[in-house]
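Supplementary notes (optional reading)

For those who missed the lab, this is the record we used. Protein: ferredoxin--NADP(+) reductase. Length: 282 residues.
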Amino acid sequence: MTEIRPVTEAKAVKVPHLPDAQTVTEVKHWTDRLFSFRCTRPASLRFRSGEFVMIGLMGDPDPNTGKQKPLLRAYSIASPSWDEELEFYSIKVQDGPLTSRLQHIQVGDEIILRPKPVGTLVHDALLPGKRIWFFATGTGFAPFASLLRDPQTYADYDEVIITHTCREVGELTYGKELIDSIRQDELLAELIGEGFHEKLRYYPTTTREQSPKMGRITDLMRDGTAFRDLGVEPIHRETDRAMVCGNLAFNLEIKQMLEDYGLREGANSQPAEYVVEKAFLD
Ligand SMILES: Cc1cc2nc3c(=O)[nH]c(=O)nc-3n(C[C@H](O)[C@H](O)[C@H](O)COP(=O)(O)OP(=O)(O)OC[C@H]3O[C@@H](n4cnc5c(N)ncnc54)[C@H](O)[C@@H]3O)c2cc1C
Ligand SMILES: NC(=O)c1ccc[n+]([C@@H]2O[C@H](COP(=O)([O-])OP(=O)(O)OC[C@H]3O[C@@H](n4cnc5c(N)ncnc54)[C@H](OP(=O)(O)O)[C@@H]3O)[C@@H](O)[C@H]2O)c1
């Protein structure tokens, strides 16, 4: 059972009521480095599952002028496009300009959200296929938390495989609980099916703490372990599509692997077989 800790250690940062302000409706702390939160959704905000927006808080007043400017960062929307609220899954960087403060938000606080969603991790950037792979490390799980809850994902593909590699076991919990909730959701469960016919496959791995499956997903694919564990054929251009979201080194490594399997990188303007987005700027 995940502990939901009240965030009382520090004074939450209130932003003035700006046109782009949204109200926090839920906060969950998963580890000392990870939390998620939900907030109201602007009535006019339309987005495609997998896209990101700029969110943040007001920065400190300028010592000379006293003026405050918004402090914004890119964030994948973790909720699906049909959800009436928005969800975000966030790192806590202790000396990070934004997250050193954002980690202390509480229900009722306001955040700034610029309602201009963009991104490449969208179904439109891929050509039709039979099987889709979502490859995530760390908070790179966030866009897939959106796509995994989107019925279109299961309508478009016969098989959906999500891999998530983290250093420690606790860093997998948000994803694990999300997968459990999808399997228990009446509508999504019907689309996914059950038992042998279930379309959704979840492959979590850790690299620094003992867990049932240890290792980087890249290594586990290279030596065939991941395909054997999942009981699936290796990746082929005709059948497989992929979306990638992780740290830069991971993105580059898996991009090369996907190219070696024969897949080509797609974009909104030119759909192909795989797409990549950074989970953060290194
Ligand atoms: C397209 C895009 C989408 C993003 N989506 C998310 C998201 O959904 N959730 C999220 O937590 N962050 C996301 N980020 C990162 C986010 O924009 C910020 O960098 C993060 O919130 C930290 O902000 P900061 O001001 O506290 O520190 P920053 O000054 O922005 O970062 C300081 C350092 O912390 C490390 N770092 C930053 N973000 C992460 C991270 N997510 N995981 C591990 N280490 C990190 C990096 O080494 C970075 O140099 C995304 C970034 C991009 C480019
Ligand atoms: N996670 C923590 O406990 C922790 C604690 C304090 C500070 N930090 C700092 O926070 C930053 C981000 O850490 P993070 O753990 O969130 O993200 P991360 O360093 O991007 O690692 C996330 C996962 O991706 C794996 N990975 C890294 N490069 C890869 C590659 N080329 N191919 C395949 N897998 C790869 C890592 O495996 P490996 O373990 O094999 O690298 C790890 O399992 C780092 O600068 C780190 O020093 C992290």
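If you only remember one thing from this example: The pocket of NAP (ligand 2) is lined by residues 33, 137-138, 165-168, 207-208, 216, 218, 247, 249-250, 253 (CB under 6 Å).
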